[in-house]
Amino acid sequence: MAPHREEDRHAFYAGKSQPSGSAGTFETIDPSTGQSAGTIHISSAGSIDKAIQSAQSAFPSWSATPPIERTRILQRAVALLREKNDELAKIETLDTGKPFSETSTVDIVTGADVLEYFANLVSSGGLNGESFRLRPTAWVYTSKEPLGVCAAIGAWNYPIQIALWKSAPCLAAGNCMVYKPSEFTPLHAQYLASIYKEAGVPDGVFNVVYGAGDVGARLTSHPAIAKVSFTGQVSTGKKVAGSAAGGMKYVTMELGGKSPLVVLPDADVDQAVDGAMLANFFSTGQVCTNGTRVFVPRSMKAEFERILLGKIQYVRAGDLHDPATNFGPLSSKAHYEKVLSYIRHGADVDKAKMLCGGPRQPANLPQSLKQGYWVEPTVFTDCTDDMKIVKEEIFGPVMSILPYDTVEEAVKRANTTELGLAAGVFGKDVNECHRVVGQLEAGITWVNTWGESPAEMAVGGWKQSGLGVENGRRGLEAWVRNKSTLVEMGGSVPTVFSKL
């Protein structure tokens, strides 16, 4: 059977797919097979400018649309996302290599939840300002005003979810958006643009351009862009934030992590293992909040490892559309080679003890998948804090087990990193869990679970892991600017320029 190919992708603006100019093309790859899944036409400088102009033209009307009316339109988009869930999930599986069992239950569902949340928030007073009496003759009122045309640069690991995390509060607040998906997973963008259009979002409110870093750089530096929202690796985020700040643009940065998962001495070992596997092997480890540094009490380590080895068999690679498959390939050839190099470094240079896995494909892969970017779930143990695999973000299914002797030691070591995206603890004593998690230097923390990020929960990194938050009530604030007005009602204007 011939591999599925999507139609060519061109820039989408003014409500339709548009010629992209002559900037060239690239192929998007099905990572499970290594075969092309479609041709993407890179957006030229001219088409990027036209997409921004389209958003500028749409902004006056969209920003003046009452929030309740914007809500009704966005709620229709929510309904369409849920109606087309499986169709969209198949596209995400094709483009990212994540199993359909995951994309059909997580990716579109959680993106639609966020769109529904922000649509409801703006219709129920989320954009209201405040009013107060300053003195008997004067009062102050504030308003939350939209920013204008915003740029969003997506990541390749959760394409449509991240596109919705960015566009939902942006559009709900009355802004317009030009969105650049990752060049590694671009197929979702036109589907989302079409859903917004079908729901009644006016032409020009949501636009799409395609390409790599140079396209993102043109968006970021364009004088008409009021805000840049970026999800990706730390080094790129610093460049994007620097460029945006130079233009006095608002920014939201959701960057990488090297997050600690601390298993407390009283934890249920079976549950802690389940948590650690979720925090390392879900989405083939390609999650920025993954808990890749697993701190385990030295006295518990042998039992933890025994239970972990017993459960590794439940990580099932294979046909991505088989409901039993829960583990896919890495997203691209370049990333596959990067992860393999970390695994080899961990074994050969760091001299960490490899408990299972290694730089090879999972056993029993069908012949049709042998050319894909598959790697076994890998666990290193007896790791130390100075190892490269412990210090650097691998972004693959590679777990490092670090034994510790005291909780205070574990907390100190957990915080010895420039990154601070996520952290979590497992333990039976909830008071102790709260005490420990309160000391961990991270913006997203969990107790006795890992990874859940509901629409209502604001999330964002500390230290080098980001700026600002997404989702929750605070997530809406990232897409508005404040206006304060002082009204004097005393009937006279105080002046120092009066006749003596």
Automatic annotation (TrEMBL):
Pfam families: Aldedh. SUPFAM superfamilies: ALDH-like. Residues 1-25 are annotated as: Disordered. Residues 1-11 have a biased composition (Basic and acidic residues). Its EC number is 1.2.1.3. Residues 23-484 form the Aldehyde dehydrogenase domain. One of its GO terms (molecular function) is metal ion binding. It catalyses: an aldehyde + NAD(+) + H2O = a carboxylate + NADH + 2 H(+). CDD domains: ALDH_F9_TMBADH. Belongs to the aldehyde dehydrogenase family. This is aldehyde dehydrogenase (NAD(+)). It comes from Neoarthrinium moseri.
